[in-house]
Amino acid sequence: MSDIENLFPPPEETLVESNYPDFISSYISLISGDPNNPEKFKGITDAPRDFIEASAYFLISTFVGRKFVYVNLPETNIFSSEEELFGGTLLNLWFLIIGKSRVSRKTKGVVKRIKDLIKEINPDLQLSQAFTPEYLIKEMASKSERSKTGAVTHCAWVDDECAWFFESLQKKDYMAMSEEFLCKMYDGEDYARGTIGRGKEYISNPYLTVFLASTDYVTKFLNEISLQKGFLNRIIYVMSKRERWLPRRTDKLTEDEKNEVRYIVTFLRNLHEKREGTAMTFRHDAKVLYEDFEKRIEERIEKENLEIKEGYYANLPDFVLKIACLNRIARLKVAEIKSCLLYTSDAADELDGVDLGGRRI
Known about the structure:
The chain is of the alpha/beta class. It contains eleven helices and eleven strands.
């Protein structure tokens, strides 16, 4: 199998670092190429760079699991007997990329790379591509794993042609409960239900990331009711066109590209295998800026009739917070990840204003 076909081979044991300052830049340069260094980083696909950037954020979001959270007292169980536990905003993201068939390279250029990495690091994270609500609940309940935070249900739903799902929501009565259930999974809420045949099914501490792809046909089924109910506004939509055409690449990866492959796999594997939790907070000046943004969003929701836009406005502050935290994680060195009890308030991040305070959970 060629280097291009098997882009993510098992990493070497030695820790490697990237030629780039962060994971996001490394992943985009490997997959899309580096116009400033085209001899070393030629690019694997001509899929839109926006799609590749979205997939890079998705990968970090997936493999951090519940190991990193943004500290948030309203989401903390203040009545817990475990003093060391803390709650916060989870960093899971849901994406839907929308582009034309073939020319946007959604399947082979984008989704395949995500599936390759999940398969390499932990294939058990992957949910079935197609499912009924009954099967989805059963499958997620069976995926609980033990960690130092207790039972965690850690899953990723990746599908390169998802229009069937959104169409089924509109046309098939048995899919009706999917939206409410998935909303609970996005929010990380425990879920329990009793069945006659299987007894009680329980999903503990869910952490679900989603990366879907479709043509613009899917927009026929993205309706106002689902937005107002809160399901569709949990998704980040990415619509883009490719910037250039590339011929099919047949040569092997360059040595610099191979190094980035090793770095990407090692970085994500270390995130996934991390056993200690890290609490994240904004630096004071960034916190002031973020809270002003959040306040202005909430004032618009209260005072204006935003109609269909109201639900999406409501999630904008959370998207900003999650992406800021993921950007900070992306700048960690491979050697730093597992040792994170890393950062304290005097080691502020000047770019995103995010501090990482080491704390066991």
